[in-house]
C-alpha cells in the first residue's frame, strides 16, 4: 500500500517539475506548446513514461515535438535529479497521449448519431 502511494506521489511531482522545466529551461521551439497530461512510474521507480499532448493534429508537428522532447530528455532528467529528493532519478521516455484524440473521435461519432436520429 505504501509503495503505491509513493509511486503516485512521485508521478505527480515529476509531472509538476517537467511542466516547469519545459516552460522555463527548455529553449527548443519545437516543444513550446506541449502539455504534460500524465506520468506513469514503474513500481521500482527506475522508469517513467511521460505522456504529453499538443494542439496540432498534423503528423509533421507530432514528429517535430517528439524529436524536440527526445533531444531535451537528458536536460530534463538532469533537472529532475536536482529538484527531486530521490536516490535514483528514473529513466524518462515521452509518449503522445492519445486520449484527447480518442475523446474527439467519440464526440464526433455521438454527433453523427444524434444528427441521424432526427426525423
TrEMBL record:
Claim: Mitochondrion is one of the keywords in the record: no
Chief site of localization: cytoplasm
A GO CC term attached to the entry: cytosol
The GO biological-process annotations, alphabetized, read as:
maturation of SSU-rRNA
- Where is the protein localized? Cytoplasm
User: What SUPFAM superfamilies does this protein map onto?
Assistant: Ribosome-binding factor A, RbfA (SSF89919)
PROSITE patterns tied to this protein: RBFA (PS01319)
**Organism domain of life:** Bacteria
| Entry keyword Cytoplasm | yes
Role description:
One of several proteins that assist in the late maturation steps of the functional core of the 30S ribosomal subunit. Associates with free 30S ribosomal subunits (but not with 30S subunits that are part of 70S ribosomes or polysomes). Required for efficient processing of 16S rRNA. May interact with the 5'-terminal helix region of 16S rRNA.
NCBIfam families noted in UniProt: rbfA
Q: What does the subunit comment say?
A: Monomer. Binds 30S ribosomal subunits, but not 50S ribosomal subunits or 70S ribosomes.
This chain belongs to which protein, by name? Answer: Ribosome-binding factor A
- Source species, please? Ligilactobacillus salivarius DSM 20555 = ATCC 11741
